[in-house]
Amino acid sequence: MLKSGRILIPTWFTTGGDGHKPSGFGNIYSDDGFRSVRIGAILQQDAEHSTIVNPNEGAIVELADGQVLATVRHDCEQRMRAVSYSSGGTGPWSCPEYRPDLPDPICHASLQRLGPAEELGFDGILFSNCANADEGIAEKKARGLCKYNWSDDARKNLTVRFSRDGGRHFSAGILIDENAPAGTASFFSSKCQKTQTASCDTCQKYADLRNSIANMGGGYNSFRAPAGCGSRLTIQEEAI
Hints:
It contains 4 helices and 13 strands.
């Protein structure tokens, strides 16, 4: 939900094909508590200078200035996340930009605010994904070694990154799990006030993550790992 009260839901849609593509990215929204729903802006694949192919599985967040930032999965050769901006999520999306600091092997990702900028003192955002550029994928595809458009082992390196400036720059991040199973690393969620699970050998990485976020200011101790969590770790984000 945006500060205005608007409920904004990212969507991806397909005409069928192989079940996932051809695809597009957009949103639906409601300004009256879902008594009525409207279709928002669609990320145009044929916009001037846009090279994005089959955008889908996007994650969105409202920035301190009211803009909506989207990071989007796509089928381009650039194995990095695409980002786009929209005014309120319903205006036209900007031409997608590919972010070298957000490597992505064609997979889902999560985007979430740390808290209100006026309380934090900065425009804090969390981004999590499988941070893997899938190097060598072109050769593997040429040799017929890939079942999909990515390497069989591409969805790994579950990483969480921070931004203090509304996503203009992200930190190098903290590697949560290098070899997380595909189902875990691919669809890890950093949504606040939710409980999620992720595979990890120790709790120390989560403690490092919690402390790093807390050190950003405001005492926002998210990602609290309970003692004795074992190999299956509950991630509890609090006070956000």
